[in-house]
Structure to design on (356 residues):
């Protein structure tokens, strides 16, 4: 069947005005990729799949929620959208607003957003404004301005964002024919873990899944308010997409983890970067934050808190590596330069073969 985007495909399961025309870039339908070699290393005896959300139109899972939020906003007569963002929401809001013919304003924490994400927002025509403060400061500002003016706020506090993002859970069940035993994913502003749980619960309630997974939410140690039990005023992590100290849907995330008999844990930046490199050896280049869910799974197995044997495990890779190319280029070894001579190339090839 021809794929027509998540609103058209899953409309019967979405709380969206029935007269709202879909604003779509044919998002969703992202691959669920088996990773048996990685499973043997970090979750022996388990069956591991990677949900690669970096293949959405703007390179992240945010497109799922944005297509629904912007469809509803357009139907309601909005002419301007606004969001605070660590990058991915900005690019997505800008793209879908452009698709709908709306003006888009994005607020980003100054100096805290990867260049690839700012570039996306600018390319789609958004007005980008840097805030001297954190993401949480930017979110407070957009909340306030959207109450004062007729501007559509499209952050994950918008319920239509949750409606769209829950479709990833539908796709996982549709692909596997069942719910996984565990779902592992990064947690920043906490909208995504909230959305997945809503989707799994809904599919279970209507008989499309015979069970619901346990959730493993994973934060970066330097930005782990849900693990610490209090807000983090100055969150710091290499994983810019989850560098958030006051998650807007934190309480819902904690409730989802508890209801699923799961948990939310933290991993170090070293853990995240090590898994980010390991994922690339599977042929999957994701932005660093995307590796947090898999890193958390590996840590829980390694420390004996999760038994993977006989389990179906799904980890969500939330964004494409092109979102944060500096993460690679600043850590890569210097590129070798040779003269245009076969002997020079042959020597390098021989050295590479010896090191395999």
């Amino acid at each position: 069947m021809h794929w027509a985007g998540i609103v058209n495909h899953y409309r019967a399961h979405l709380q969206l005005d029935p007269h709202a025309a879909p604003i779509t870039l044919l998002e969703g339908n992202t691959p669920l990729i088996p990773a048996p070699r990685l499973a043997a290393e970090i979750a022996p005896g388990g069956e591991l799949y990677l949900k690669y959300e970096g293949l959405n139109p703007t390179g992240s899972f945010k497109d799922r929620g944005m297509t629904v939020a912007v469809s509803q906003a357009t139907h309601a007569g909005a002419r301007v959208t606004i969001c605070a963002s660590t990058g991915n929401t900005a690019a997505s809001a800008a793209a879908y607003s452009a698709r709908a013919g709306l003006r888009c304003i994005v607020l980003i924490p100054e100096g805290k957003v990867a260049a690839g994400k700012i570039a996306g927002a600018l390319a789609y025509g958004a007005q980008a404004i840097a805030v001297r403060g954190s993401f949480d400061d930017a979110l407070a500002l957009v909340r306030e301005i959207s109450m004062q003016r007729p501007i559509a706020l499209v952050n994950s506090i918008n319920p239509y964002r949750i409606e769209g993002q829950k479709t990833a859970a539908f796709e996982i069940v549709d692909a596997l024919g069942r719910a996984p035993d565990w779902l592992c994913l990064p947690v920043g502003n906490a909208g995504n873990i909230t959305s997945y749980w809503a989707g799994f619960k809904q599919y279970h309630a209507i008989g499309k899944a015979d069970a619901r997974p346990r959730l493993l939410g994973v934060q970066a140690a330097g930005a782990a308010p849900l693990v610490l039990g209090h807000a983090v005023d100055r969150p710091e992590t290499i994983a810019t997409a989850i560098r958030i100290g006051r998650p807007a849907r934190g309480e819902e995330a904690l409730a989802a983890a508890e209801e699923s008999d799961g948990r939310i844990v933290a991993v170090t930046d070293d853990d995240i970067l090590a898994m980010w490199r390991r994922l690339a050896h599977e042929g999957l280049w994701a932005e660093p934050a995307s590796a947090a869910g898999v890193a958390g799974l590996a840590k829980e197995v390694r420390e004996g808190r999760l038994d993977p044997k006989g389990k179906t495990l799904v980890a969500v890779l939330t964004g494409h590596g092109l979102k944060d190319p500096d993460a690679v280029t600043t850590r890569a070894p210097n590129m070798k330069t040779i003269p245009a001579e076969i002997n020079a190339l042959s020597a390098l090839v021989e050295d590479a073969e010896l090191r395999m």
